[in-house]
Amino acid sequence: MKKFILLVLGLILCGSCLYAKETDTNKFIIYYFHGNQRCSNCIKIEKWSKETIEKEFVAKLKNKKIQYKVINIDEKANQSYVKKYNLYTKALVISEINNKNQEIKSKNLEKIWINLVDENKFKSYVSNELKGFMK
Fold first, then answer.
1. Is 89 domain-assigned?
2. Beta strands in 1-135 (DSSP E)
């Protein structure tokens, strides 16, 4: 009976290790989507997002666990993003990609607009959302 219990516990632990290894290999892409017409707020969102990511996620950027991509959705080649992420305006979207290069989940950080009035609030919001998403 003890051997059986140890075997079951071993299988459970190994299964959780396998799951952890798979999630450890996942990567995250942070997209900033904009159009051809760019106002000062759009430029501010791009700038503050980039600054936050470069400050808060140095190690993850270096080991390529995170990528930051700026994409113009008005370009024909990028139109698929509009439908995929249901974009209706400029947006900051985070996407989790598994080791098979498949998107597992994504999140549009829609409150960037609310927090745009204060740089510290904006950066804190983006940082907290990214950290929470990547857990």
1. yes
2. 27-34, 66-72, 91-97, 103-108
Residue 126 inside a domain? The answer is: yes
- Does some domain include residue 6? no
Cα–Cα dist 82/71, whole Å: 11
- The per-residue pLDDT string of the chain (135 residues; one tens digit each, 9 = 90 and over) reads 554 433 333 444 444 444 434 456 899 999 999 999 999 999 999 999 999 999 999 999 999 999 999 999 999 999 999 999 999 999 999 999 999 999 999 999 999 999 999 999 999 999 999 999 998
C-alpha 12/C-alpha 77 separation (Å) is: 45
Total tally of structural domains belonging to the chain: 1
Residue 31 lies in a domain: yes
C-alpha 118/C-alpha 55 separation (Å) is 18
Report the CATH number at residue 29: 3.40.30.10
Q: What is the pTM of this model?
A: 0.80
Q: Is 7 in a helix, a strand, or coil?
A: helix
**Residue ranges making up the domain that contains 93:** 25-133
CB atoms within 10 A of CB 23: 13
